[in-house]
């Protein structure tokens, strides 16, 4: 169990490392894509501006800046005279900044030209524009009025909110403008803002993301398949080990008995007593038969694994056959087993292999008696439906847990009840039951609760 947990932890750790590396690589690629995106559109913007200047002998803000000169003259000659205190001065500066930004934004001619240029080049043109003041000073022949100076190197006020940071990341600086006229000096930055930049980059990276996700999924699937196969191999290996140990124990018992009996015969007191010799000879014969049965069972296992069942089907009355099997089973157990039979076969006839079918039912009856910790009570119910013959064997035994029910039909599997040799068996009875039922085209199922007994149901086509 510790080994299983260790393998699982190591595997999951490896997957976590793989995912971490993939995330790091994707983040690095994403960053490169964003840098390339910004550089690409900055270069396109520069090309568009150069073309705009050559065609119009302007930079796209002439109308706005000309109007701004008249606006500045009006402020310097009229509005500045009304300032009486610091509060009025601050309010005036705020109004001037809003007015200047409004003039620049409404009269600029560069945005539509950039959109058209991007479209003609086959690039994304869904962007908005942003104008950020760096410096604004109103002047006349006598005085200067400093309206605004950018407080730090980042365009605009320091960004603290998440939306501000996101906006700054999506901006691309097109150009920084500076102009001095009769009544003002101004410096401002012109940005284009791709709000859909993340989607564009994501679309470009879709192949990388898909390949990365696919590789992670493939590695996880391979790991869990390998882990499952490894655990299954270990389980089968343990089952085979248990089988070998159990078989060794079963074989040693008759061998030890025969060895002891042989040494007993060498004793002079025993060899001179014909009755003792006869008793020991009978014991040797009985143990020899048992040993021969075990050897034949090993050969039978090998034969069943190498080939398919060769059924010798015969037409039988299923009720009569079941009655004969149960009667023989009772006789073999000295009629000490309480078996309740309830058959509703309605005279059904079916073609089955009598020998294999008898072995199947006997195995179920043997288990019903073997795995009982009190006076065995076995109920056998049989009936027919439209297409099948259904036989159920119910006992009052110790029951089977849900976990063990998944494996009880596996070869060599034995439910662990503490001492594995306390209850004799090789873990093959239910395996043979399933093989025989399937060879007849049928199925076998189990329903059980610990401490309440078990019910095995065999369904075979008519």
Write the layout of secondary structure elements.
Elements: H1 2-56, H2 62-77, H3 86-107, H4 110-121, E1 128-139, E2 144-149, H5 162-170, E3 171-180, E4 184-193, H6 197-204, H7 206-265, H8 268-271, H9 274-306, E5 313-317, H10 318-332, E6 338-344, E7 349-353, H11 354-370, E8 377-384, E9 388-394, H12 402-405, H13 429-439, E10 443-449, E11 453-461
Parallel strand pairs: 6-8
Antiparallel strand pairs: 1-2, 1-4, 3-4, 5-7, 8-9, 9-11, 10-11
Helix pairs in contact: 1-4, 1-6, 1-7, 2-3, 7-9, 10-11, 11-13
Count of helix runs: 13
Largest sheet: 5 strands, mixed
Sketch the topology as an H/E string, one letter per element.
HHHHEEHEEHHHHEHEEHEEHHEE
Low-confidence stretches are 153-167, 418-422
> Which strand order do you get reading across the main beta sheet?
6-8-9-11-10
Structure summarized in a few sentences:
This protein has 462 residues and is of the alpha+beta class.
Textual characterization of the structure:
The chain is an alpha+beta fold. It folds into three domains: about 1-205, no CATH class; about 210-305, Helix Hairpins (Orthogonal Bundle); about 315-460, 2-Layer Sandwich (Heat Shock Protein 90), CATH 3.30.565.10. The chain is built from 13 helices and eleven strands. The protein has helices at about 1-55, 60-75, 85-105, 110-120, 160-170, 195-205, 205-265, 270, 275-305, 320-330, 355-370, 400-405, 430-440, and strands spanning about 130-140, 145-150, 170-180, 185-195, 315, 340-345, 350-355, 375-385, 390-395, 445-450, 455-460.
């Amino acid at each position: 169990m510790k080994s299983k947990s260790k393998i699982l932890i190591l595997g999951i750790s490896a997957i976590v490392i793989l995912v971490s590396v993939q995330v790091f690589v994707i983040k690095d690629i994403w960053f490169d894509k964003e840098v390339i995106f910004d550089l690409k559109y900055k270069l396109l913007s520069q090309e568009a501006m150069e073309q705009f200047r050559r065609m119009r002998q302007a930079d796209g803000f002439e109308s706005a800046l000309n109007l701004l000169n008249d606006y500045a003259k009006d402020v310097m000659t009229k509005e500045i005279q009304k300032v009486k205190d610091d509060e009025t001065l601050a309010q005036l500066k705020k109004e001037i900044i809003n007015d200047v930004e409004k003039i620049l934004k409404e009269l600029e001619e560069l945005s539509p030209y950039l959109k058209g240029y991007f479209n003609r080049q086959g690039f994304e043109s869904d962007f908005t524009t942003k104008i950020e003041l760096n410096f604004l000073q109103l002047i006349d022949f006598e005085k200067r009025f400093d309206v605004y100076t950018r407080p730090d190197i980042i365009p605009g006020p320091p960004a603290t909110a998440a939306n501000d940071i996101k906006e700054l990341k999506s901006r691309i600086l097109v150009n920084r403008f500076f102009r001095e006229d009769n009544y003002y000096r101004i410096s401002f930055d012109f940005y284009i803002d791709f709000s859909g930049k993340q989607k564009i980059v994501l679309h470009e990276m879709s192949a990388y993301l898909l390949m990365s996700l696919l590789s992670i999924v493939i590695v996880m699937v391979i790991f869990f398949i390998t882990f499952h196969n490894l655990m299954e191999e270990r389980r089968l290996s343990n089952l085979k080990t248990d089988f070998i140990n159990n078989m060794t124990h079963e074989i040693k018992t008759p061998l030890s008995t025969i060895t002891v009996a042989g040494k007993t015969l060498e004793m002079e007191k025993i060899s001179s007593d014909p009755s003792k010799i006869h008793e020991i000879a009978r014991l040797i014969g009985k143990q020899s038969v048992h040993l021969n049965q075990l050897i034949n069972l090993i050969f039978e296992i090998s034969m069943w694994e190498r080939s398919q069942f060769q059924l010798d089907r015969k037409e039988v009355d299923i009720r009569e056959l079941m009655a004969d099997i149960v009667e023989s089973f009772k006789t073999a157990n000295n009629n000490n087993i309480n078996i309740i039979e309830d058959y509703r076969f309605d005279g059904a006839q079916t073609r089955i292999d009598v020998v294999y079918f008898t072995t199947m039912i006997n195995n179920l009856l043997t288990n019903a008696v073997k795995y009982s910790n009190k006076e065995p009570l076995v109920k056998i119910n049989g009936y027919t439906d439209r297409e099948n013959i259904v036989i159920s064997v119910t006992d009052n035994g110790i029951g089977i847990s849900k976990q063990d029910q998944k494996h009880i039909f596996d070869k060599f599997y034995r439910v662990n009840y503490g001492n594995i040799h306390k209850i004799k068996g090789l873990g093959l009875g239910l395996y043979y039951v399933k093989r025989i039922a399937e060879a007849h085209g049928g199925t076998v199922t189990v329903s059980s609760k610990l401490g309440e007994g078990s019910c095995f149901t065999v369904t075979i086509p008519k």
